[in-house]
Amino acid sequence: MAVRSSASSEAHASKNFSHGDFFLWKEFVWGAVAGAFGEGMMHPVDTIKTRLQSQAILSGVQNQKNILQMVQSVWQVDGLKGFYRGVAPGIIGSLATGATYFGVIESTKRWIEDSHPSLRGHWAHFIAGAVGDTLGSFVYVPCEVMKQRMQVQGTITSWSSVAVKDGIAINPGTQMYGYYTGMFHAGCSIWKTQGLKGLYAGYLSTLARDVPFAGLMVMFYEALKDAKEQVEQRWIRSPNWHVNNSFEGLVLGGLAGGLSAYLTTPLDVVKTRLQVQGSTLRYTGWLDAISNIWATEGMKGLFRGSIPRITWYIPASALTFMAVEFLRGHFNDNSRDVGRLLVDKKSLQGDCLKVSD
Q: Fewer Cβ atoms within 10 A, N terminus or C terminus of the chain?
């Protein structure tokens, strides 16, 4: 009677059930769910950040509010609804970004490390994150344009009161752009008035912000994981010591997201203003926006909204990485268990046939 070792069975199971192509679709699903979860939880903070960064266009450089004043203003004028304006396109955009980000990142990282060994380590992580985010930008950017315009509008009452101030109106008595009742209305209105160019307003500035951010976040996350492992090997040698993958993703993901968010804040300010300005072109392009903000507002203008941006990204990144690590661990463990059962079943059937012979 032939007997297979458990090691060979597990190796066979791993070969059948852990193949990259088999699990690729799961990476897309995990990333999409995690991205949408993070966006939905933290959307009110993103609304405050967007309004802080765009108020120079809406109310002028000299009349800008701080964080507490902006929160108070949104609550008094728009109520709770104002904090959640634009949440639908925000979630849809995060679904696309999360799916491509986590779905592409692992395969890209492996391909880079296998085909270009000199790029192993942090460079591979940076490039993989950048590629994943770039692919998602084709869906994410139009959603971001709709989301941010709905965020700065608030309710119809607040939009009608600020959209006709000096420097905002296209012609006397007209609004910068009409009020959007929802995501579908926003998309159709932008397409009708500005075409594809309007839906992809600030596309290059979005890539200029998100490619470095995505690359830095993956690089920082992997670097923090490596540092944690080195600390464990050098200082913590207890066999009972174990850090849950979900908790690790929560802490390290939050740190990586917060640091990356702060470093890329100036790029976020430029992107937001280009997407919010509509047909009233205060800035003609990316470089013009940077030079104009620097000349009129200085360094403070380029880092405006950095605190709510960090406040958004720390928990959003933490929740996203936690969810992904949990789903990876949970489903991979279940898949390995199923693989072992099927292999053992086939082995037993083969042994029974041999005995009957």
A: C
